[in-house]
Amino acid sequence: MNFAEKAVIMDADEMTRAIKRMAHEVLEANKGVENLVLLGIQRRGVSLARMLGEAIKQIEGHEVPQGALDITFYRDDLSTLGPAPQVSSTEMPFDVTDKIIILVDDVLYTGRTVRAALDVIMDWGRPAAIRLAVLVDRGHRELPVRPDFVGKNVPTSQREIIKVKVKEFDDEEEVIVGEVMDA
Question: What are 108-148's pLDDT values in tens digits?
C-alpha cells in the first residue's frame, strides 16, 4: 500500500500536551490512581500507555501498573493477514479482576481492534471497568465503540490514513494524515 503524506496534525509538543490532558481526565474520572491499571494495545498503544503512565506519575506521584496486549489471534480478519502475521507479546503483570483498566491505543477507527482487545482482557479475568483512551479518533466506526479519553478528534475520509509515530519505533513523535495511493 502506497501512502502519500498530506499533513502533520500533531507534533511532539502537541502529543505531549494531549497525553497530559488525558492523564488529568483519567485521574478525575477515577478520583485518583486506586485500582487503576494501564493496558496498551501492541505496538504503539504500549508506547502511548507508557507516556500516559508517566504523565499520571508526574501528577499523582504514584506509578500505575502497566501491561501490553497482543490482539493478533483475536482479530476478525486474521485470515487476511497472510501466512505469518506479526505477533507481539501480551504482558499482564497484574490480575485484571476488579481493576479499572484504561485500554490505550493510538488510533480509533472501525472499533474492531478494541473489540479484539476486550476479548483478550475478558480471557484474563473480570475487571471492574474498562475505559478506552486513544490519541486520535478518526471516526468511521463499524462497531458501537466510543472512547472515554481522546487526544484529538480528526475527521477523515475512508481513503485517508492516520499514522502515529513514537520514538520507540519511529525515532520521532508526531501524527500525520495521508492518503492511500493507487498502485
Answer: 999 999 999 999 999 999 999 999 999 999 999 999 999 99
Cβ–Cβ under 8 Å, residues 117 and 103: yes
Query: Which domains are delineated in the chain?
Result: 2-77+88-181 (3.40.50.2020)
Q: Which three cell numbers stand for residue 37?
A: 491499571
Dihedral of the CA atoms 105, 107, 111, 116 (nearest 10)?
Answer: -30
Which of 113, 101, 114, 110 shows the shortest CA–CA distance to 138?
A: 110
d(CA 45, CA 176): 16
Strand partners, 101: 37, 130
Q: What does pTM read for this prediction?
A: 0.92
Please determine, for residue 87, whether its predicted confidence score (pLDDT) is greater than 80.
Answer: no
**Cell numbers placing 45:** 498503544
Non-local CB neighbours of 29 within 8 Å, separated by 6+ positions: 131, 148, 149
pLDDT at 59: 97
Cα–Cα distances (Å) from 151 to 34, 94, 124, 159, in that order, read 23, 27, 28, 22
CA distances from 119 to 77, 95, 111, 146, 168 (A): 15, 16, 13, 16, 27
